[in-house]
Amino acid sequence: MSQTTPPVAATRPFSYERHGVTIDDPWAWLRDPGYPEVKDPDVLAYLEAENTYLEGVMEPLKPLAETLFQEMRGRIKEDDATVPQKDGAYLYWTDHETGGEYRRWWRKPVAGGDAELILDEPKLAEGKEYFVLGGFSISPDDRYLAYAFDDNGSERFEVRVKDLTTGDLLPDMIPGVLSDLFWTSDSRGFLYGVANDQWRTDNARWHKLGDPVESDIELYHEDDEGYRVGVGETQSRRFLVISTGDHVTSEIRLLPADNPLADPILVAPRQTGREYDVEEHDGTLFIHTNDTHTNWRLVTASLDAPGEWHERIAPSETFYMTGVTTFADYFVVEGREAGLDQIEIHQYEGGPEADGAKRIAFPEASYVASLGDNPEYAMAKLRIGYESMVTPGTVYDYDVATGELETLKVQIIPSGYDASKYATERLHIAARDGTDIPCSIVYPKDFPLDGTGKVYLYAYGAYGYAIPPGFSTARMSFLDRGVAFAIAHIRGGDDLGQQWYLDGKLEKRTNTFNDFVDVAKGLIDRGYTHKGGIAIAGRSAGGELMGAVVNSDPDLWAVVVADVPFVDVLNTMLDDSLPLTPGEWPEWGNPITDKAAFDLIRGYSPYDNVKPQGYPPLFISGGLNDPRVTYWEPAKWAAKLRATKTDDNVLVLKTNMGAGHGGKSGRWESLREAADENAFILWQLGLANA
């Protein structure tokens, strides 16, 4: 049964003192002391009451949400399949059945023969409210498939092994895994990592098929509580990779893929502030590092002396090197210049002065491009992914010898798509400190530039993650109703290089919030929209951004969507018992030991800065099983907003009771969630009947 009166969360006196400051937190009780199990009846009753209120608010919007869902679904090819790619003796691809929520995984012998269904996600997900596939790895002899799945959103995956010759599951089962899976070259076992009680992977282990999990050999253990361990392999598959690090420092060890019990090769010991990753070619290590410049460089070293680095490609003031992949006959450097993706082919011969670097040319002035699925070491053609804000996802094969791009697939939009109906621009808007902030925008060709238009503005702005100006079929439901869509490439992401990221973190964190507000004001000044005509959205750390800007500039926004928002920043960073906190201090600062960090975070933490003022309409979401942004952050924020704000604008809190950080799983269930949020946005923009 729905309700039309918003619930009120009780307040319970609670306070603590840090650095001589008393912090009152009367909604602290919403954190169940038994977390990650949530059984407190008062907590569950409040979350359920909020969900019931949400249903009541959304009831009149059900027809619009259904219309949006059908529009978005109509733009998705239901029986879509990926382009097959060769890996050894087989071609591999995935597809969806018509109406299916989940993928099916296939392979077919290159030499000829029938297609073989190797993993049936729909069957695995049957009867489950939530299902996400994690690690997926075929053994080198093509016989075994190791895969991991999460069926509750907690991101603690269970690993199973399937014998592809018989179709049977082996008795091997590993719970609590939080890593990818990589086989040793003899196909007798694989590397993985298990999450500890703090939801941190502090280990790398080798599981030998048939052995009990208890006897798995720990190959590496990390003692620093701020570091996380990952496993991987080089493109040549000669070496397995054990990496450890936090947000600013990394350390890598290599193991021969044919002997995981060998003494690991330490490439270079950890050095605070230095990050690097490693590839290998014919006994030479190719090391991509930021040791001398924030735009990174490429150095080489021998396996015998991995710490003796020789510069191969010097850092550039204009080209931000984001990654290097070594293939048998050439290596590929990826990066961004002026914020746009670049892919370069380099030759091994001739050294750094004469390696004949060749940059792949793409047809548009603004786009997203990257290496796609390239599993083999010897690749005559590179699989490339490409899209733009007006160009649907495209899969190319790039012939390295001839330089030709062959189009293999263009995203099919069954309901139809006419790119000529839309225009896209890349704007540069000055922030208050004079820095030019890029803004990618797409709009219908007849969009007014007289200040009467409506804009949907999105951003993230943290962890050095750049929001790419790519294509979205869901976005078309806004464009076709006359709403422009914009991405603010604010500091905190690495859109313009690593320095762009550094200029939005720690003591410079407020640049991120100011940039977003200033981009919005710039769009108003240029006639794209007006105060109160802007819908905004952000997720996770982008939800923190939403919380900050509604506190600082509430009258700018028509409506705000904050999904799994990281809004209780101060309390979370003060609690080192929480799974992520120690590893997050390099990103946000450590307010436990550093009073300056305490004061700074206290000054912008969205939850701590809710004030008695008018707020725009808000749609807030959380996940009960979310290990990244715990459910009580959005719940406490919603409760405090309800008790404090002076307006009558609608505020809803949705808690997914059977999901985590990613929301609902399955392509249609996640689409329905998007349809609900989009209906809420259109309603508040005055376009519910458009």
User: Which percent range fits the helix content?
Assistant: 10-25%
Tell me, rounded to a whole number, the average pLDDT: 95
SS-based structural class? alpha+beta
Walk across the major sheet and give the strand order: 31-32-34-33-35-36-37-38
Instruction: Report the sheet with the most strands, covering strand number, pairing sense and barrel closure.
Output: 8 strands, mixed
What does this structure look like?
This protein has 690 residues and is an alpha+beta fold. Helices cover 18% and strands 33% of the residues. Strand 31 and strand 32 (436-444) form a beta hairpin. Helix 2 (62-74) crosses helix 12. The model has no long low-confidence stretch (mean pLDDT 95).
Quick structural summary:
With 690 residues, the chain is α+β, with helices and mostly antiparallel strands.
Salient structural properties:
about 700 residues, alpha+beta, 8-stranded mixed beta sheet, 12 helices, about 35% strand, globular
Tell me the layout of helices and strands.
Elements (H helix, E strand, L loop, with lengths): L14 E4 L2 E4 L16 H18 L3 H13 L10 E3 L2 E6 L8 E6 L6 E5 H5 L6 E7 L5 E7 L6 E7 L5 E9 L4 E2 L5 E4 L10 E6 L8 E5 L6 E6 L5 E7 L4 E7 L8 E4 L7 E6 L2 E6 L7 E6 L2 E9 L5 E8 L4 E7 L2 E7 L11 E2 L8 E4 L9 E7 L6 E6 L5 E6 L11 E9 L5 E9 L9 E5 L17 H4 L3 E6 L9 H5 L7 H16 L8 E6 L1 H12 L4 E7 L5 H5 L7 H8 L6 H10 L13 E6 L8 H13 L6 E6 L10 H18 L6
Parallel strand pairs: 33-34, 33-35, 35-36, 36-37, 37-38
Antiparallel strand pairs: 1-2, 3-4, 4-5, 5-6, 7-8, 8-9, 9-10, 11-12, 12-13, 13-14, 15-16, 16-17, 17-18, 19-20, 20-21, 21-22, 23-24, 24-25, 25-26, 27-28, 28-29, 29-30, 31-32, 32-34
